[in-house]
Design a protein that fits this description.
The chain is α/β, with parallel strands linked by helices and about 325 residues long. It is about 40% helix and about 15% strand.
């Protein structure tokens, strides 16, 4: 595919999974170009060297306003729409694994943006929790038709550089600053709003495919049956192709909260590709990465709680 690549978003706390994501890209998609969209200053040299990955970070961006205002949880993904090194791209979060040839969904001849097709309809309460404050949305954007929309988790989507104007995005950021809470859950709300509004106005061609499986939405046994890891590696059934997304409990090696074997396999594959580590040595390395991540997450939660207590004490 011409001028196409896969962009993986990562920060320091999910880089351990991003390495597995990149290994899954190489396993199923061959030598398709990879780019890491990095929120932070940590080194990603191993992925650069192992898979020839490009990197987008604060040091090499073109748009100063994005550098200042679009890094962090809920906004980093948006950078790809203006800074992507590829005209067309698949962009994914770090807590995912490619399963099968998902490039069969990349129909850019007919669509500019291809999103997941939800497996069930959202109730108004769910929309209000994850996407929009409905009364406020109707007040500020009365022409936007939000009912009966297949809103999606945007952790997996096929996109095209330049389909949104930078001015439109900055208006959204300014709106969020003035009216926090109207758009929910990071970019879940405002990106869905931007996509469907642009499609309504004829500014982009929006396609929908079954490109994402959100692990907590299904019984663990069903996920295990669909994505088996055998001694020889992943066993793809037929032409099955999808991106596995561990929203919720993360796919650490020893977790009992989610079926994590696909991610564990690809994390091991990365260690073998990058450092020729296998067997017990590789398993020990993964356990160490998980331990370091758990400590970082715990410390972050403690700092967040202390920050809230300090703010409460000043009132």
């Amino acid at each position: 595919m011409e001028d196409f690549g896969v962009i993986v978003i990562c920060c320091d706390q999910d880089y351990l999974f991003a390495k597995g994501t990149c290994a899954s890209i190489r396993h199923f998609l061959g030598d398709v170009p990879i780019c890491l969209l990095v929120d932070g200053t940590f080194s990603v040299a191993e992925v650069e060297k192992t898979y020839g990955a490009k990197v987008i970070n604060r040091l090499n961006m073109t748009h100063e306003v994005l550098k200042k205002r679009s890094f962090g949880w809920g906004t980093t993904r948006m950078i790809a729409f203006w800074e992507s090194p590829f005209k067309h791209f698949l962009i994914v979060d770090a807590d995912v694994a490619i399963w099968g040839n998902v490039l069969k969904y990349a129909n850019f001849n007919e669509f500019d943006l291809i999103i997941d097709r939800p497996c069930y309809e959202y109730s108004d309460d769910t929309i209000a929790e994850f996407f929009f404050d409905i009364p406020a949305l109707e007040t500020y954007f009365p022409n936007f038709r939000w009912r009966n929309r297949p809103f999606v988790c945007p952790a997996v989507l096929f996109g095209t550089r330049g389909i949104f104007s930078l001015e439109e995005y900055i208006e959204i950021l300014d709106f969020n600053d003035k009216h926090p809470g109207v758009f929910k859950y990071g970019d879940m709300g405002f990106l869905n709003f931007m996509m469907f509004r642009a499609a309504d106005e004829g500014r982009l061609r929006l396609g929908k495919e079954d490109i994402q499986l959100i692990v907590p939405d299904f019984p663990q046994e069903d996920v295990k049956k669909r994505f088996p890891i055998k001694e020889t590696g992943p066993e793809v059934k037929g032409d099955d192709a999808i991106v596995i997304h561990w929203a919720g409990p993360k796919p650490t090696v020893s977790t009992k909260k989610a079926y994590s074997e696909p991610m564990s396999f690809f994390r091991r594959k990365f260690l073998q590709d990058a450092r020729q580590l296998t067997g017990f040595t590789a398993s020990l390395e993964l356990q160490l990465e998980d331990w370091q991540r758990n400590i970082a997450v715990y410390n972050r939660k403690i700092r967040k709680k202390l920050g809230k207590l300090v703010k409460a004490g000043k009132k």
